Amino acid sequence: MKAQRSVHRLLSQAFPVVIVAAIAITVWQVVVALGEIEPILLPSPFQVANAVKQHNEALQRGFFITATTALTGLTLSVIIGGLTAVLFSQARLLRSALYPYAIFLQTVPIVAIAPLLITWSGYQQRTVILVAMIISLFPIVSNVTEGLTTLDVNLRDMFRLYGATRWSLLLKLRIPSAVRGLVQGIRISSGLAVIGAIVGEFFVGNGSSYDGLGTLMTGWQAQQKTAALIAAVLASTLLGVLMFWMVNLLAATVLSKWLPKNVC
Amino acid sequence: MHGPNGELIRINCHDLNVQFADGSVGVSELTTEFQPGEITAIIGPSGCGKSTLLRAIAGLIPESSGQVAFAPLQCSSASFSSGSTSSGSCSSGSFSSGPFPAQRGDLAFVFQDAALVPWRTARENVQLPLELTNSHSVSEYRDAVTRQLRAVELSVDQDDKQPMQLSGGMRMRVSIARALVTEPAVLLLDEPFAALDEMLRTRLGELLVALWQQRQCTVLFVTHNIAEAILLSHRLVILSAGKLCAELTNPLPFPRSASLRTEPQFAQFYAELAAKLVEVSA
Q1: Chain A nearest CA to B100, separation (Å)
Q2: Is residue A36 part of a domain?
Q3: pTM for the whole structure
Q4: Which residues, numbered 91 to 150 in chain B, qualify as contacts with chain A under a Cβ-Cβ cut-off of 8 Å?
Q5: What CATH number is given to the structural domain containing A179?
Q6: Which residues of B touch A168 (CB under 8 A)?
Q7: Most buried of A60, B212, B225, B250, CB within 10 angstroms?
Q8: Residue B17 in contact with residue B212, Cβ under 8 Å?
Q9: Are B118 and A260 inside 8 Å of each other by CB?
Q10: For the residues B205-229, what does the mean pLDDT come to?
């Protein structure tokens, strides 16, 4: 019942978004028709729709590959970032020593290190997953660390009074308290993982057997297939939105128990 | 609700000083004794160190100097009559300034804001101390928790609700049930009813006295409400600027109820206490 309500709420939130998209497509079509713009610069929505139809198989395959890559990268960043945050919460010295490097990782432009990663890992999906993982790691580490270390003072005191072990405190208070931070982190990272996957695919390129949306974009841009290129851009946008919705769905269903309002 | 070996606990504060990192004084040169099996109200103006004293006794704040010591009072079976303590056949054990409680769960604390774990249901919140202290087997959890939930007059349909689904009064009932579930020898309450309306705080005050009458333990109750302090306590301790200013014995007999407010004796003691507080504040 609660899950049904959550799904219903998500659908009602999506409705205005769909309306805005319909208006944007109409304006786009009118601008292209009245402005007599060359299709190579800006094709009409119908031409893009035709490109979708024409390259349907490649787009579907690319969407699936990029989605798999981004999701794998995101999952790895949740596992590695979550475990790192748990370590940070348990050892203040470790946190002081390593947290600045986590921030450093965030400030390094992913475009700058992608070629280096290809040198180390090769022209393959593994490299793209690595890019997606690295770019989406920091929000998980920072948000989960914050959640694990910022406890309600009274609750922490109560656990102390009952002689809670470090393990009990971690399992019964710290980790459940960090679920909110985890969800916030995944929300940010879900979009970043898609960006990381696409950027990684730009670099992995057509030379390999790997053909995600980013690889398709590079190829179609070179062939001046602008309509197909826009179709791939829209597919990657759709992927980003779907990932974000999946996180919200996860928060509203599986994780909802640990996300009540702050009344205690 | 007695100590680990069934005894009551006497609390002794000797020349207790608590100073914070910023240099401000929480408690200053405080020496007093909290009698076993009695309810002591700690009263005084805001910021006078009431909560700090309570937290120092609980071991949540380290004392800068002085000490808090706990001594068990060994009693024969019928030593404590309902509502009044008699040490006729009791003998006081030696004070120990070591970590208390000796057994986890012997000391319980009720916080001002209920401090319930927001993702746990009412039942799971009450069960938490048992999980942390491992004092009961899993099969025993259910009975002990149910008993406490009913004792604080929560209906069965509230058991599986999360704190956000409960009213302020219900949340405080859960908090009291959680504190009592380990049957502590010492119960510390830090302005537990401050956020509740007058009717509810009167009702919960009566409930607290009723629960204490069923299973006596040493209770320290911080409040800034004079009527509440009189209705609930055997003894009153008045603090000002971290110092102990006065100790008064409550002349009103047990059992207590809100109807006592209309008694001349209540009004007389209320006036005496109010005058003392004004004197202390000045």
Answers
A1: 9
A2: no
A3: 0.83
A4: 104-105, 107-109, 111, 113-119, 128-129, 131-133
A5: 1.10.3720.10
A6: 131-132
A7: B212
A8: no
A9: yes
A10: 89
Contact A155, A126 (CB under 8 A): no
User: Testing the interface with B: which of A156, A166, A169, A263 to mutate, by most B Cβ within 10 A?
Assistant: A263
Domain range holding A151?
52-258
SS3 state of residue A188: helix
| B241 torsion bin: left (phi>0), alpha (psi -120 to 50), beta (else) | left
Work out the pLDDT band at B90, boundaries 50, 70, 90: low
Interface confidence, given as ipTM, is 0.85
The answer to whether residue B151 scores a pLDDT higher than 50 is yes
Measured between CB atoms, which of A158, A159, A263 is closest to B118?
A263
> Quick check: B58 contacting A, CB < 8 Å?
yes
Opening angle at CA A185, ends A89 and A143, nearest 5: 30
Question: Does A146 fall in a domain?
Answer: yes
What is the C-alpha separation between B55 and A79, in angstroms, rounded? 39
Q: Best mutation site among B107, B116, B119 for testing chain A: the one with the most A CBs within 10 Å?
A: B119
**Gyration radius of chain B over CA positions:** 18
Q: What is the pLDDT of residues A188-236, one digit of tens each?
A: 999 999 999 999 999 887 666 778 999 999 999 999 999 999 999 999 9
DSSP strand pairing (B39-43 vs B218-223): parallel
Q: Alpha-carbon torsion B96, B192, B274, B24, what sign?
A: positive
* Number of domains comprising chain A: 1
Of the partner residues B109, B118, B131, the one whose CB lies closest to the CB of residue A158: B109
Instruction: Tell me how many residue pairs between chain A and chain B have CB atoms under 8 A apart.
Output: 66
Taken as a whole, chain A contains a residue count of 264
| pLDDT tens-digit map of B231-267 | 899 999 999 989 999 999 998 887 777 788 888 888 9
- Tokens 């790895």 locate to A76
A11: in domain: no
Is A32 within a domain? no
* Cα distance between residue A151 and residue A157, in whole Å: 10
Minimal CA–CA distance to B58: which of B136, B15, B111?
A: B111
Contacts of A180 in chain B (CB under 8 A): none
Contacts with A262 from chain B: Cβ below 8 Å: 118
